[in-house]
């Protein structure tokens, strides 16, 4: 039997999350077909076709898929479902939105946020904000999975692309309507896949200070910028920078937490980083319990020194 | 809108530290403080705000869980919900079965809107709302950070990975709440007293003829891999030389 992976993309560029989910699914030893549902998204299909592990690309091009809305996408996945034992998506906002809708209509209990494939029916996933790891075995015939992408490396590319097959989507009446979007534009690397993340907390004190302190350090390190929930709630940073249980989960080589106390909800989003640096003026801050390197002190003094030392 | 249905879940309090049972069967919550799931509390608050703005007439809360989940429902009533239902069971009910029970409740209650938390902070599944929308054949707007009702449609701003997206939905619809949708109110003592007199009915899953048997077998629940103890460094330059030595910068 075969696996179907639902690609995450913006109609132009395939997200790194899809390449990471592909790595997870290759552990199942089944062929993986990747579904690219989008509007004028052939460039995405061509990127997928060159990923190591893709067996076939299914491209569905229709205006209904321009914004990844759950209703048409769920109907499309359902129309393809009979051929697949495993249906998966990266645990991005899009994957989380659509896959449970498919699971319910297939009468399958989905396994969310898979961090390890143990066997074809058994998977590990974090629960309680990562304070425990559950090993769960699915008794359903089909397996529906979302993949926590920070737990897997991105699949590499191959020289010869696999075939792209175009499929006509099922027609239907979709109730939810796209009205608009405000997308963050940034020259910084993508938070979910960056090698280094510089993250700021409430101690930054204002949106201006957040930019002033975090921005240059991130620039110097070619790092992505992250934020704690407290900083996002206070309006210092936009929501798409939030790292934590309910925001993005990251596991970069280096995570630098500035003025972040380290509530378990934040730790859930970054404690699998390879090296964690914490700078905080409260020496009892819980962030120090997960930090490999900690400096107790005023971040407004230490960060400029850090930049100077980096040269 | 005539009616808003708000499903709520009782979970281990977000400030409590989960203890993994030594026999690896799960989390030991005996004697621990239980609370309303924070996302569910936000959903109750949003439903009440819609009602207070004149956009809805009645807010009904429903929970699936043990007898103690009545406390969670009483809290929602004290916040201002009109009545409550408990589908009582001591079993762990998976999101798929929760969605089936809620679907049955929705068919009886015929709400115009179901608003619920995007995930429970215990199992972290993030599935129930989407599954419910699918079973009902209703549109969905997940991860809402703003909800507005205008001209018989619901305008919902959603938090997505790349920023914010706005959808409009005809009713009936399912909305799941994200953290920044609102800040839930505190319950004043007179309201807590008043909530004791509000209607809270209790039934069991079998009343709906729905099988809540588990589809996922828990093989083991283990503590996560621990991290090596870190070190304190005194200065920024010391930190940079350590990071350089490790090839990180």
Automatic annotation (TrEMBL), chain A:
GO terms for molecular function: electron transfer activity; flavin adenine dinucleotide binding. The keyword Acyltransferase does not apply. FAD binds at residues 202, 228-229, 242-246, 259-266, 280. Residues 3-182 form the Electron transfer flavoprotein alpha/beta-subunit N-terminal domain. Signal peptide: none annotated. InterPro entries: DHS-like_NAD/FAD-binding_dom, ETF_a/b_N, ETF_a/FixB, ETF_alpha_N, ETF_asu_C, ETF_asu_C_CS, Rossmann-like_a/b/a_fold. It comes from the Bacteria. Its cofactor is FAD. Coiled coil: none annotated. Binds 1 FAD per dimer. Keywords: Electron transport, FAD, Flavoprotein, Transport. GO terms for biological process: fatty acid beta-oxidation using acyl-CoA dehydrogenase. Belongs to the ETF alpha-subunit/FixB family. The electron transfer flavoprotein serves as a specific electron acceptor for other dehydrogenases. It transfers the electrons to the main respiratory chain via ETF-ubiquinone oxidoreductase (ETF dehydrogenase). PANTHER family: ELECTRON TRANSFER FLAVOPROTEIN ALPHA, ELECTRON TRANSFER FLAVOPROTEIN SUBUNIT ALPHA, MITOCHONDRIAL. This is Electron transfer flavoprotein subunit alpha.
UniProtKB/TrEMBL annotation, chain B:
SMART domains: ETF. SUPFAM superfamilies: Adenine nucleotide alpha hydrolases-like (SSF52402). Keywords: Electron transport, Transport. Residues 24-212 form the Electron transfer flavoprotein alpha/beta-subunit N-terminal domain. The keyword Electron transport applies. GO terms for biological process: carboxylic acid catabolic process. Its cofactor is AMP. GO terms for molecular function: electron transfer activity. The keyword Nucleotide-binding does not apply. InterPro entries: ETF_a/b_N, ETF_b, ETF_beta_N, Rossmann-like_a/b/a_fold. Heterodimer of an alpha and a beta subunit. PANTHER family: ELECTRON TRANSFER FLAVOPROTEIN BETA-SUBUNIT, ELECTRON TRANSFER FLAVOPROTEIN SUBUNIT BETA. This is Electron transfer flavoprotein subunit beta.
């Amino acid at each position: 039997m075969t696996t179907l992976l639902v690609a995450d993309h913006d109609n132009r560029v395939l997200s790194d999350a899809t390449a990471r989910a592909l790595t997870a699914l290759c552990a199942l030893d089944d062929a993986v077909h990747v579904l690219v549902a989008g509007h004028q998204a052939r460039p995405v299909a061509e990127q997928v076709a060159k990923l190591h592990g893709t067996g076939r690309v299914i491209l569905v091009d229709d205006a209904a898929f321009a914004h990844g809305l759950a209703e048409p996408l769920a109907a499309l996945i359902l129309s393809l479902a009979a051929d697949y034992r495993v249906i998966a998506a990266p645990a991005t906002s899009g994957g989380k939105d659509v896959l449970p809708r498919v699971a319910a209509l297939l009468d399958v209990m989905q396994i969310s946020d898979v961090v390890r494939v143990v066997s074809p029916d058994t998977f590990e996933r974090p629960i309680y904000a990562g304070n425990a790891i559950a090993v769960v075995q699915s008794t359903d015939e089909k397996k529906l999975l979302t993949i926590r992408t920070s737990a897997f490396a991105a699949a590499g590319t191959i020289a010869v692309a696999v075939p792209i097959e175009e499929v006509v989507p099922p027609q239907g009446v979709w109730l939810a309507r796209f009205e608009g979007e405000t997308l963050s534009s940034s020259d910084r690397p993508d938070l979910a896949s960056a090698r280094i993340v510089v993250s700021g907390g409430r101690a930054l004190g204002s949106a201006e200070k957040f930019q002033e302190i975090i921005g240059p350090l991130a620039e110097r390190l070619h790092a992505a910028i992250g934020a704690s929930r407290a900083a996002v709630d206070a309006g210092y940073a936009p929501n798409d920078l939030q790292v934590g249980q309910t925001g993005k989960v990251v596991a970069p080589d280096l995570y630098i937490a500035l003025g972040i106390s380290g509530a378990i909800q934040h730790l859930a989003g970054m404690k699998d980083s390879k090296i964690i640096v914490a700078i905080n003026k409260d020496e009892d801050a819980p962030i120090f319990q997960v930090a490999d390197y900690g400096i107790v002190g005023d971040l407004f003094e230490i960060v400029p020194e850090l930049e100077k030392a980096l040269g | 809108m005539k009616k808003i249905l708000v499903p709520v879940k009782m979970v281990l309090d977000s400030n409590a530290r989960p203890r993994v049972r030594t026999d690896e069967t799960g989390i030991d919550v005996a004697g621990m403080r239980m609370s309303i799931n924070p996302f569910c509390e936000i959903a109750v608050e949003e439903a009440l705000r819609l009602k207070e703005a004149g956009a809805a007439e009645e807010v009904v809360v429903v929970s699936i869980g043990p007898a103690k989940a009545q406390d969670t429902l009483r809290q929602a009533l004290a916040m201002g919900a009109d009545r409550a239902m408990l589908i009582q069971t001591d079993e762990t009910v998976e999101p798929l079965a929760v969605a089936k029970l809620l679907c049955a409740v929705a068919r009886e209650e015929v709400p115009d809107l179901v608003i619920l938390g995007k995930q429970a902070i215990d199992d972290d599944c993030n599935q129930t709302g989407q599954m419910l929308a699918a079973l009902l054949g209703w549109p969905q707007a997940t991860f809402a950070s703003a909800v507005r009702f205008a001209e018989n449609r619901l305008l919902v701003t959603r938090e997505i990975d790349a920023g914010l997206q706005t959808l409009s939905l005809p009713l009936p619809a399912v909305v799941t709440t994200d953290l920044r949708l609102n800040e839930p109110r505190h319950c004043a003592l007179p309201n807590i007293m008043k909530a004791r007199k509000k209607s809270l009915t209790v039934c069991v899953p079998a009343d709906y003829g729905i099988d809540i048997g588990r589809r996922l077998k828990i093989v083991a629940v283990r503590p996560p891999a621990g991290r090596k103890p870190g070190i304190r460094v005194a200065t920024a330059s010391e930190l940079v030389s350590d990071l350089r030595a490790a090839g990180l910068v």
